[in-house]
Amino acid sequence: MSKQAPTLAQVAKIAGVSQMTASRALNDKPGVSHETREAVLKIASDIGYVVNRSAQKLSGSRNGIIGIMTPVLDNHYVGELVVGVGRAARAQGYETLVYTLFDEDRHSHRSVLGLIKQFTDGVVAILPRESAYFNALAAANVPVVAIDQRCSLDGFPSVSVDSYGGAVRAVEHLAQLGHTRIGFVGGDESIEGVRDRRRGYLDALARLGLPSDPNLIAPGDLSQMRAFEAGSSLLALSEPPTAIFAVNDLSAFGVIAAAREQGLRVPRDLSVVGFDDIPMASQVHPPLTTIRQPFAQMGRAAVNTLLSQMENDDAIAPRIVLPTELIVRESTGPAPRYAVGTRRTKRSDHDRTTSR
Amino acid sequence: MSKQAPTLAQVAKIAGVSQMTASRALNDKPGVSHETREAVLKIASDIGYVVNRSAQKLSGSRNGIIGIMTPVLDNHYVGELVVGVGRAARAQGYETLVYTLFDEDRHSHRSVLGLIKQFTDGVVAILPRESAYFNALAAANVPVVAIDQRCSLDGFPSVSVDSYGGAVRAVEHLAQLGHTRIGFVGGDESIEGVRDRRRGYLDALARLGLPSDPNLIAPGDLSQMRAFEAGSSLLALSEPPTAIFAVNDLSAFGVIAAAREQGLRVPRDLSVVGFDDIPMASQVHPPLTTIRQPFAQMGRAAVNTLLSQMENDDAIAPRIVLPTELIVRESTGPAPRYAVGTRRTKRSDHDRTTSR
DNA sequence: GTGAAAGCGCTAACAC
DNA sequence: GTGTTAGCGCTTTCAC
């Protein structure tokens, strides 16, 4: 079979220097002459030496690994974030290992943290709701930064996104297109980001002098199906909206499906704006106008913050809020010209009975 | 600050035994009296002892961690698999760490593998296309099992799914509902699973004595948007299909969107079957009839295979193919009664001009 | 059934 | 600049 992985001792021996010198050379530490360093580096590369990060960690130093803790990654939001953090970490010379929390985990906080601590120099926690882990994290004495839409956790540096501003931007965009009846499909109000979007929607309406009709707000739960229902009910109003701002992209998809189901075309008859800009948003028809969460930037911010926490243990915990960006694609267009209430013909109602 | 994590030495000292005895007790190894074991366990739990898996690994033994290598997890398929493997591993007492490969990784095969090897007892590789890593994996002498739709890699144990059978099942389902003109929206043919689905579709048609019209096969690329186009073109045929089997769920969504765009209702006017059963499939409207990939089972199979490879290094590499399951939801229904070609009125064509 | 010694691969601390 | 020593936390091997 393949031989054992080369060790530092072997590199040192071949180079004819001590392990320490080899170590210093490989780690870019001072105290090695230029030639010695070059020689060591060359030999290491020749024999395919790779440091053993377990040993590195065990001996009490950094090992260049950042841990990412996530809830089960079944949603796009988390997936994008993991990629964002991963790329940013790599750019800084760090590797990244993700540890997925399953719901059954409740008991094992301590051991999970132990594991993380043994393997990594610090952790980026993408924990959406339950803060139980945060307590454990706090006790574990590991550098941590939280990425979340609602990190009101004390003492942790955090990175989040300006949901409020994004919502305002979405409504403004719609208003600029001439829409005056703008609906909102919401989500789980226990999430701070969701509440912020709702507030943003309402405030923007008010600021623009547009009517804010409670009927135009439909509850959702961030899922496509629920948004389909919400959208359907909004469109069934006697004075339906000509535009809808959905709390996330998935919900926007649901709204578009509902519109189509009623014989409406997007964006001709209904404009729709989402939130997140998950990859699918640009790959559906019509490509979705949406508020982009700056995943890459969030990753970078998280990594940088983490690194500086590692340098300076007692640094004050920053709270970084990143701006969103309006991405105009093809799901929004000018408000229809027909007067409110005189909607163009829809297919007759018997046409809409459910099948099967 | 929080004190240092407790070590084995501390446990042993408190228990009044040697480290070795404590170690044996904690690892369920023979050679410890019942009472001693109980005592050690109790103390360990009391002081919150957690083994250091880095040290465990360094000292040459197993550490109970399974690595999962994945391409960037931006798609549902991979996400589900990660969850499946994670759960299965946990059920066997293993922790799981996922290492995400970024495209820029090309160079670093060796170091990645080094990293993996230092931290884990074995790895589940969810590598879709490039086998470059597989070579590295082969050379690294780490137990590996591949999960993939196309693992023709030699020597590796693999777990995959019976795409062919699934496709057959999908077509049979449609035929049973009375459909005779059944279309297919395909995907990237470089993926074995995709080719299998196409073959299954064709063979099932032949076996059922249904016409197999080349026009009824539209190319796709597994994305929703491309499937939207493919579906649109299929539905624009002079003799359009009354049912479409899409190569994956995302494509099925695209087809449904296309149908709606043309004023057709699903399933009344068009039945659609997907493949995968990603979580979204049940959360859209209408809930999607689809061929389920048994993600949980795949995870279990992968983990079990990996464990037995670990036991028995030179065991022959099994090639496990798991069956799929037809999940009937609401996107499929009886074939429309009207004769082929006398399609019910669609909205007039000028209605379909693109906006903006 | 239990323990002592040695070592996994590395780096911090202190020589020289 | 470079080398030596010690030790991270654990498990192996070999005693008893």
UniProtKB/TrEMBL annotation, chains A, B:
Annotated HTH lacI-type domain residues: 6-60
Protein name per its UniProtKB record: LacI family transcriptional regulator
Entries under PANTHER family matching the protein: LACI-RELATED TRANSCRIPTIONAL REPRESSOR (PTHR30146), LACTOSE OPERON REPRESSOR (PTHR30146:SF153)
Coiled-coil zones: none
Keywords on record: DNA-binding, Transcription, Transcription regulation
Region named Disordered: 333-356
GO MF term (any one): DNA-binding transcription factor activity
InterPro entries the record matches: HTH_LacI, LacI/GalR-like_sensor, Lambda_DNA-bd_dom_sf, Peripla_BP_I
